[in-house]
Amino acid sequence: MAFEIFEQHFGELTEYVVQDAATGNRFVVVPEHGAIIRQLSLRKNLTLFSILKTPPTPQAILADTKSHSELLFPFASRIPDGKYKFLGKEYQLEKNEDGNLNAIHGLVRKKHFELGDQVIEADHASIQLHYHVQETAGYPFDITFSVKYTLHADGRFELTYDAVNNGKDPAPVMFGWHPYFFLGNEDVDAWKINIPSDTVVRFNENLIPVGKDQFTTEMPVLLHRRDFDNCFVVKTSGSGVSTELISANQNVTLKIDQETGEGKFNYLVVYTPPARDCVAIEPLTANVDSFNTGEGLNILAHGHHISGTISLRLI
Questions:
Q1: Strand pairing of 180-181 and 279-284?
Q2: pTM, whole model, 2 decimals?
Q3: String of DSSP letters for 210-237
Q4: Helices H / strands E in the chain, number of each
Q5: Residue 309: how many CB atoms within 10 A of its CB?
Q6: How far is Cα 137 from Cα 153, in angstroms, rounded to an integer?
Q7: Residue 252 is inside which H or E element, if any?
Q8: Residue 114's domain is classified under what CATH number?
């Protein structure tokens, strides 16, 4: 059988490798550090591309403040001053952003996830991980959060999240993934991006939404001398949309598919870091600060769950 799953050490961390020996496609997940994907390699023809930028050493991963590959739950991006109101009650989250201004990126980052099912079949292999969010300061809800990573024989990588409310009270939930992508040894200025949106969220100076504007840039757009740090409302005419990161020189495109529709990934953040060696492309289930605005926010009743899938492939 071509697929295999095995354990290895990365410094003091323990990680799991899921790979397809027939193609070389593989991903590496670190359960004890937020269940992040540390490495993701996918093949296009004769070339195996490492497409996910993460810190290169165990020490750098443990010290990371840029949320490389992190899972963002039960909220993503910023909540101003860490304050939100839900069903008439006010809550105060820890202000954990640099500068102590906002709560940012949720409550499961860098947490120790428990291993779940490991599956190997003829056409795919997957690994599932769980974390229990319970009675956290500013979030007094009881949620089991899980993520399943799957590698398919056709070269697709999938991330599927699931959240279930174990508590008696309704709970607000939002999910996002925070990967930084690159293609070969080129920098950002060599690539084009195709963003599936005609609406961009307008931010204030604190990167908190204050409205929406039309996004009329012709797609795909060359990233040369182009900076993005924006949240977009994606077009949701069907069951999914695709963002494309395109390298014409290498004849390869990274296609990032996100489920859309009720409760799914109807928002997208695109960010070009100052080093211009990668692009963050972050599917979100709700708008920034949705805990206050309700835009896209999922509200889970007792015993109910919500899920969604993001998939990647090279074309």
A1: antiparallel
A2: 0.96
A3: EEEEE----SSEE-TT---EEEEEEP-S
A4: 2, 28
A5: 17
A6: 42
A7: strand 252-259
A8: 2.70.98.10
Q: Cβ distance 77 to 288 under 8 Å?
A: yes
Which residue bears the tokens 């909540």? 79
Q: Examine residue 255 and state whether it is found in any structural domain, yes or no.
A: no
Q: Which residue has the tokens 């398919």?
A: 152
The identity of residue 288, as a single letter, is V
Round the average pLDDT of the chain to a whole number and report it: 96
Q: Which residues make beta-bridge pairs with 199?
A: 214, 233
Structural domain for 139, as ranges: 3-186+279-314
Evaluate if residue 71 carries a pLDDT over 90.
Answer: yes
Number of domains in the chain: 1
Is the distance from CB of 263 to CB of 308 less than 8 angstroms? yes
Question: Does any domain span residue 214?
Answer: no
What span, in angstroms and rounded, lies between the C-alpha atoms of 174 and 141?
Answer: 13
User: If you search the block for the tokens 């009270």, which residue do you land on?
Assistant: 169
> What number is the average pLDDT over the span 49-75?
96
